[in-house]
Design goal:
Elements lengths: L2 E4 L1 H12 L7 E5 L6 H12 L3 E5 L10 H16 L2 E6 L7 H15 L3 E7 L2 H11 L4 E6 L4 H8 L3 H11 L12 H21 L8 H12 L4 E2 L2 H7 L6 H13 L3 E6 L12 E4 L2 H7 L11 H18 L3 E7 L2 E9 L2 E7 L10 H9 L4 E6 L1 H9 L3 E4 H7 L6
Parallel strand pairs: 1-6, 2-5, 2-6, 3-4, 4-5, 8-10, 12-13, 13-14
Antiparallel strand pairs: 7-9, 8-9, 10-11, 11-12
Length: 411
């Protein structure tokens, strides 16, 4: 299996390239969070391919009728043979019972009969698609992840100044469907809760059949969202829950939340496997979830600097995670590094500073890079902090620059 984590424009371009290859190629499985544009992308492809495209919403009422699957594929095969090539677009495929084995059977039939039909399928939950695809579709598919939108994507799509898009990403997150409501806090909050949080927590995860205590799952989610960019021992999480579960259950639920693109429990960086699990650092994968669940408006840097700093740090680490980097943290009391990431960006140690700081506060960052020299240090700060960091010989970016383009322009 090959997997890519992409933004909307890049994902669409990658799919267009693959659909131009001889059919039937590998099945294209498009996963990602709710409300980031997967259905829009499929409909866009359907319009582009015109009469050679067949779109089907697998969560629609017609999908529940007897024979839906068989009729759909018969029509797709006839279309491909009549037109000399076609594409079938399956939206929210996980709603089809036994979808993985059934899709495997159809794809194998296409290959045997050499029917020129491309297959693209979407699903909101990485866990559902991942589990089924691993069991039945080995060697037959490629996965694309359409991630949470970046500040750059918001800037281009909504014609915003790049810095304004980055600030918006911190305060209200980056769900494109919520942008039109951003001046109406009540409607915006209702949209995030009703269109994103409730379906993801109350449907995508719960229908997996592996959540025995849904009320506890909701509590774990709510507590994690209230602690953005915080290192929290599982025992402490357990103590704050109204309905405590076992440590193993809480860890399991955190992993489910990560697979559903909601919260990532970051591991502690260690060159060798740890003898015992270190407490995770909780990163909410879209700041909209924090803002929608918070009791009041987003924090202001002047009146609530600590909380504001946590939101900025969370947005930066979430952006790295959503960009396909492996993101961790590091701590060796009393030293700490906010983020350690490696991947297509390279190997970086990240320190986020949203308020005034002294060079001595970079000691943890510099000690980490001394111990592990393959990592480059980077301070994510404001313009005044850039001067402090560079005086200490450390590369620095403003946090708005980082959220727009990552560490590539660091100097």
């Amino acid at each position: 299996m090959t997997e890519f984590t992409l933004d909307y424009a890049t994902c669409r371009a990658r799919l267009a390239e693959r659909l131009a290859e001889p059919a039937p190629g590998r099945i294209q499985l498009l996963t990602g969070p709710r409300q980031v544009g997967k259905t829009t992308l499929l409909l866009d492809l359907a319009r582009q391919h015109g009469e050679t495209a067949l779109y089907a919403a697998c969560d629609g009422p017609e999908a529940g009728l007897p024979g839906f699957w068989e009729r759909l594929w018969a029509k797709a095969r006839d279309l491909a043979e009549d037109r000399g090539g076609a594409i079938i677009l399956l939206d929210e495929l996980q709603h089809v019972s036994h979808w993985a084995s059934r899709l495997k059977g159809e794809w194998d039939r296409l290959r045997r009969r050499r029917i020129p039909l491309h297959v693209v399928a979407t699903g909101s939950s990485a866990l559902r698609l991942g589990a089924g695809s691993r069991e039945s579709l080995a060697g037959r598919f490629e996965r694309l992840t359409l991630s949470h939108w970046s500040a750059s994507a918001l800037s281009k799509a909504f014609k915003l100044d790049a810095n304004a898009a980055a600030e918006l990403m911190v305060r209200l997150g980056s769900y494109p469907g919520a942008m039109a409501l951003r001046t109406d806090p009540a409607r915006w909050r209702a949209y995030i809760r009703d269109a994103i949080i409730e379906p993801a927590v109350g449907k995508d995860i719960l229908t997996l059949g592996v959540v025995r205590r849904p009320a506890l799952l909701r509590q774990v989610f709510a507590l994690a969202v209230s602690l953005p960019a915080r290192i929290v021992a599982i025992q402490k999480l357990q103590g704050q829950l109204q309905d405590p579960g076992t440590l193993e259950t809480i860890v399991h639920y955190l992993k489910l939340l990560e697979e559903a693109y909601l919260v990532a429990p970051l591991e502690k960086y260690a060159p060798q496997p740890l003898h015992r699990a270190a407490p995770p650092k909780l990163v909410v994968l879209n700041n909209a979830l924090i803002a929608a669940m918070a009791p009041g408006p987003p924090p202001e840097p002047g009146t609530d600097p600590a909380r504001y700093g946590a939101w900025v740090e969370n947005a930066c680490l979430a952006y790295a995670w959503n960009s396909g980097q492996r993101v961790m943290y590091w701590r060796a009391e009393p030293l700490e590094v906010d983020g350690v990431c490696e991947g297509s960006w390279g190997a970086w140690a990240l320190e986020v500073k949203t308020g005034p700081f002294q060079q001595g506060e970079l000691r943890g960052l510099l000690e980490f890079c001394r111990r592990y020299p393959r990592f480059r240090p980077l301070v994510i700060t404001d313009s005044a902090g850039q001067r402090v960091a560079r005086a200490a010989g450390v590369a620095a970016l403003t946090w708005t620059e980082f959220l727009v383009g990552g560490p590539a322009s660091a100097r």
